[in-house]
């Protein structure tokens, strides 16, 4: 049957278009080394069950080693007649050890438990790689935050000036979601560490094979308690797609800040030449393409997640061929992030900040109004009234073309009798920042504590 894994009950082969639709080697070949690892463990299980002699096991393992070497060197690859990675590798094994021995490996397993196992093995490795790349971005944010500790900037809500912040505090606010993403990967890995091998087609294996032994040999912590679930579930692929999409969304939000900061109007930062691009017509341009591609790819990764969930939602138990559609979206999300993350780390790590510009803007837009209100509260004025008085200060400044920090001692009584010249002491960016000294606040000591906390987290991974 030209290397096909089925055919006994068919009088003829599949139509060309049928085969073209069915074929998956173009994307599942990346699972080849995991398929071979699974085959080694399965061969040992067959041997323990008395279905392979000592000599047959040795021949099988030697054949698998040769096949593995040929796959790695590129000497062996899928042929146009191979339907999927499993069929291609069985053909390769038979070419190396003969049909009598090679044809024995498939006993007691199905492509259904194979593929479900391979995707978990692959995801465990690929997500670890993504996780390491995520921590490189965290590292870049941490280094910039450390380097610029003490630099003030305008903090915004609704994109409007709100209260002054330390630049470091803002940068670390982008680090924490990425740290949680790394933790999500670690958490998901515990669920991925359960092997479906031995579930066979759906009902479990009948040949006395030991799924727990196979699981242990493949580095899993257990095997699945339910063979139907083992072959039919893809929630873990969807969870991976979610974590990957969340990483992209977190990079996208960071990128949106960078895109704003490097505009002429903000002028908070300049991109390094190595991490920006020019225009083919406008000679002056220096564009934030890394950040824009991050923002763009976030949409793509959200699509991969949404598409996979839509594929899964109507499927009855157990295995359905629809499940073959789980791979490309997840592979794509991983591939995109493995290209994107190093670029974002490079962009962030090489940004040049302009502290003078940020500090000049920090008190603008009446961003010290809360400090006036808080000062009044410390003078025992009820907060509701303090809010009114601080609002009156803003109105006064707006009418006279002033900022709150421009107010003078003789102007204060015109606004409200509660305002004594002492209030001028809090009308500074440095005073405002220093006053927010509770845990998690923007005061320098708190930001220094965060830097230490992140360094500890980074050391743990
Ligand atoms: N290519 C299939 C997948 O990705 C492997 C399992 C095929 N099983 C089957 N009975 N056709 O899901």
UniProtKB/TrEMBL annotation:
PANTHER family: ARGININOSUCCINATE LYASE (PTHR43814). Its EC number is 4.3.2.1. Residues 15-303 form the Fumarate lyase N-terminal domain. GO terms for molecular function: lyase activity. Its main location: cytoplasm. HAMAP family: Arg_succ_lyase. The keyword Amino-acid biosynthesis applies. It holds the Pfam family ASL_C2. The lineage of its organism: Bacteria, Bacillati, Actinomycetota, Actinomycetes, Propionibacteriales. Transmembrane segments: none annotated. Belongs to the lyase 1 family. Argininosuccinate lyase subfamily. This is Argininosuccinate lyase. SUPFAM superfamilies: L-aspartase-like (SSF48557). It comes from Microlunatus ginsengisoli. Residues 366-434 form the Argininosuccinate lyase C-terminal domain. It is found in: Cytoplasm.
């Amino acid at each position: 049957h030209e290397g096909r894994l089925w055919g006994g009950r068919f009088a003829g082969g599949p139509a060309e278009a049928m085969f073209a639709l069915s074929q998956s080697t173009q994307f599942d070949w990346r699972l080849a080394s995991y398929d071979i690892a699974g085959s080694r463990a399965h061969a040992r299980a067959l041997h323990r069950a008395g279905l392979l002699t000592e000599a047959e096991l040795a021949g099988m393992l030697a054949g698998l080693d040769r096949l593995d070497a040929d796959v790695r060197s590129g000497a062996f690859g899928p042929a146009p007649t191979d339907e999927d990675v499993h069929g291609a590798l069985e053909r390769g094994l038979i070419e190396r050890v003969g049909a009598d021995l090679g044809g024995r490996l498939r006993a007691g397993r199905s492509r259904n438990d194979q593929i479900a196992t391979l995707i978990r093995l692959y995801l465990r490795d690929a997500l670890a790689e993504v996780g390491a790349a995520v921590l490189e971005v965290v590292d870049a944010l941490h280094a910039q935050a450390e380097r610029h500790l003490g630099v003030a900037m305008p903090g915004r809500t609704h994109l409007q000036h709100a209260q002054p912040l330390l630049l470091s505090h803002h940068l670390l606010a982008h680090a924490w979601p990425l740290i949680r993403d790394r933790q999500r990967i670690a958490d998901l890995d515990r669920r991925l560490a359960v092997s479906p091998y031995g579930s066979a087609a759906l009902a479990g294996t009948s040949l006395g094979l030991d799924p727990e032994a196979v699981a242990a040999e493949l580095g899993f912590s257990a095997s699945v308690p339910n063979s139907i679930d083992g072959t039919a579930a893809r929630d873990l692929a969807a969870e991976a797609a979610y974590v990957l999409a969340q990483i992209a969304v977190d990079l996208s939000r960071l990128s949106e800040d960078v895109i704003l900061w490097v505009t002429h109007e903000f002028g908070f930062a300049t991109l390094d030449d190595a991490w920006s691009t020019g225009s083919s017509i406008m000679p002056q341009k220096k564009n934030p393409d890394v950040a824009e591609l991050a923002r763009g790819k976030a949409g793509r990764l959200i699509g991969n997640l949404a598409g996979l969930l839509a594929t899964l939602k109507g499927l009855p138990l157990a295995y359905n061929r629809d499940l073959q559609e789980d791979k490309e979206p997840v592979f794509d999300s991983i591939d995109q992030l493995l290209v994107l993350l190093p670029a974002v780390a490079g962009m962030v790590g090489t940004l040049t900040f302009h502290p003078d510009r940020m500090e000049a803007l920090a008190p603008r837009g009446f961003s010290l109004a809360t400090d006036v209100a808080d000062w009044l509260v410390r003078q025992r004025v009820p907060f509701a009234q303090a809010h009114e008085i601080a609002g009156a200060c803003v109105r006064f400044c707006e009418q006279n073309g002033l900022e709150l920090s421009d107010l003078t001692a003789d102007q204060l009584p015109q606004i409200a009798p509660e305002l004594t010249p002492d209030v001028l002491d809090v009308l500074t960016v440095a005073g405002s920042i220093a006053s927010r000294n509770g845990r998690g606040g923007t005061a320098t000591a708190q930001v220094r504590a965060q830097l230490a906390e992140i360094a500890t987290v980074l050391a743990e991974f």
